[in-house]
Structures are given as structure tokens and as C-alpha cells.
Amino acid sequence: MMLSDVDTLQKFRFLFFISLRDSREETYVSHMIKTQLIYKIYPEDKWESAYKRVLRIMKNVMYLIIPDGLDEWPCKETLPSMDEIPKEQCTVLTTYRPWELADERIRNSQIDILFDLEGIRDPREFNKKILRCLLDKSKDIKKKREAV
After folding, report:
1. What is the Cα–Cα distance from 112 to 71, expressed in whole angstroms?
2. Pick from 20, 92, 29: which is nearest to 55 by CA?
3. Would you say 103 and 134 are in contact if contact means Cβ atoms under 8 Å apart?
4. Where are the alpha helices (DSSP H) in the chain?
5. Over the Cα atoms of the chain, what is R_g?
6. Taking the domains of the chain in order of start, what are their residue ranges?
7. Which of 102, 128, 23, 107 is nearest to 66 (CA)?
8. Beta bridge partners of 90
9. SS3 for 64?
10. Quick check: 120 and 65 in contact, CB under 8 A?
11. Whole-model pTM above 0.85?
């Protein structure tokens, strides 16, 4: 990971990781956030207020949505819909297996940047270190960087 990549990661205040494999019946990212995150974190009587809070947060801070595993999502004719999601400060990083790049539902005009991630020996440890630094602003990722 380059230092400029770390600087970019530090700009995001929230990360929404969505497993497309677990969203077989859903087409809207907003509903995926509800079922995979809000419904699992909050009691049922808090679901609606928590969702409204998330939408308010999305309007005010930079955030990253990672729909993971597009090749495992059964809706082959379309991409997950971002309707209802405030997009002004949103970055979407969709993951899928490289041999699926020929997927008809992804047009070249929809791809801003394409990269192949390799070289991380221990993804779990890498994620823990990045998230720990994002949560604790007093730590500097550049200084804490170790080969993972």
C-alpha cells in the first residue's frame, strides 16, 4: 500500500461493507445496509431511527460503500441500485473476481478506476490495523505501517 493510498483511506469517516452473496433477494443498497447492518446492530424498535441517522451521516461526511462479490450476486442484468443513498460524499468500491470483468452488466463507462489487489499476506491482520487507525485518530497509519 502506498502512502497516498493511506491518506485517501483516512478521509473516509464510515465504511459500509455489504456482502452481495448475502443479498440474493435485494436490489437496493439502502435495503442491504438495513438488513446486514442496522437490523443486526439495533433492536427492532430502533431500526427506523437508526436508518434515518445513517442517511443524515451520509449527507455530512465522506464514506465508502463496498458491495463485495458482484460475481456472487444473482441479479445478472443489473448492478445494485444506489437509489435512496446520498451520493455527494460517497465512494463505491465494488469487488468481484477478475475473470468476471467481462460481466455484461458493468460497462466501461461505469468504471472510474480498476485495480487488482495483491500482496497482502494476512488480510485479517491488515484490516484490523487499518480499522484500528481509522477509529483512533491519535494513531498515524503511516508511522504504524508494517508489512502485512
Report:
1. 19
2. 29
3. no
4. 3-10, 29-33, 39-41, 47-60, 123-135, 141-144
5. 16
6. 3-117
7. 23
8. 63
9. strand
10. no
11. no
